[in-house]
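Renewal narrative, Specific Aim 1. Our central claim is that a sequence can be written position by position from structural information alone. The example that follows is taken directly from our test logs and has not been curated for this report. It begins with the structure tokens describing the chain, in the order in which they were read.
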């Protein structure tokens, strides 16, 4: 695929795009079919570039205790995921109730989230969910879908250029979304998959998976009224909670196994 990734990506004929779609389907960790047109190396490069740009725009927290706390939770989670990346974590000094993870092993948490995720287990639910998006290659799938739909987005030029609507869109597709002022939420299927995978990751790390339900209840109270599920690409909070409850028996088993192996996080 390297020849499609130079700085002057041409517009592809519809027939070529169709052929790419037919030969570039991949399977996610839970068996979902998704489009992957780009090599992992290119998506990783874009993720690292986006993360570096975020660090330039948003200051890191100077609270050493909070930073150590977030790093402790993230480290426990990332030990349990299938990844070759060395993960980097930044606690951003921003009141946004949000977090993200990007290809290339990059995690960002906002200080505002710590007011809603009330303990280490709830924070682990968020970080596990965001990391799951990366492990499931959701960023690649979304960039690939946009590439195919637009018959050849000039990704390399856009990523290297100055701020523009196109660059904001690309960063949103990678997973930054609201962090750059462009709301490009993951699809329902991707959100649900990240919920289930994230639940398993946190349980394997020794965090109580039941905290995920408390987290989304807190999120529901924080967000107030939200649009009906059919008008949103995200699962409604209650649907999300019901799905987590259905997945809880397996997660509880993983949690018990982790505890039997003395995986008892003490992040604070």
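The sequence written for that structure reads:
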């Amino acid at each position: 695929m390297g020849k499609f990734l130079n700085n002057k990506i041409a517009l592809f004929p519809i027939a070529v795009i169709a052929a790419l779609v037919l030969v570039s389907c991949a399977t996610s960790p839970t068996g979902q079919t998704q489009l992957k047109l780009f090599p992992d190396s290119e998506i990783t490069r874009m993720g690292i570039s986006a993360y570096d740009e975020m660090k330039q725009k948003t200051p890191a927290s100077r609270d050493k205790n909070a930073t150590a706390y977030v790093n402790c939770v993230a480290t426990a989670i990332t030990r349990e995921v299938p990844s070759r990346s060395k993960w980097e974590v930044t606690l951003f000094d921003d009141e946004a109730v949000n977090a993200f993870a990007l290809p290339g092993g990059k995690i960002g948490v906002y200080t505002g989230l710590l007011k809603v995720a009330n303990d280490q287990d709830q924070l682990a639910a968020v970080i596990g969910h965001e990391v799951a998006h990366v492990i499931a290659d959701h960023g690649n799938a979304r960039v690939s879908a946009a590439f195919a739909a637009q018959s050849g987005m000039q990704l390399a030029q856009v990523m290297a250029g100055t701020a523009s609507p196109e660059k904001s869109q690309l960063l949103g597709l990678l997973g930054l979304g609201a962090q750059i002022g462009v709301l490009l939420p993951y699809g329902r299927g991707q959100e649900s998959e990240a919920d289930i995978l994230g639940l398993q990751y946190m349980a394997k790390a020794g965090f109580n998976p039941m905290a995920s339900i408390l987290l989304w209840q807190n999120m529901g109270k924080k967000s107030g009224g939200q649009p009906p599920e059919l008008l949103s690409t995200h699962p409604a909070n209650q649907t999300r909670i019901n799905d987590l409850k259905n997945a809880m028996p397996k997660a509880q088993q993983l949690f018990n196994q982790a505890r039997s192996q003395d995986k008892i996080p003490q992040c604070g």
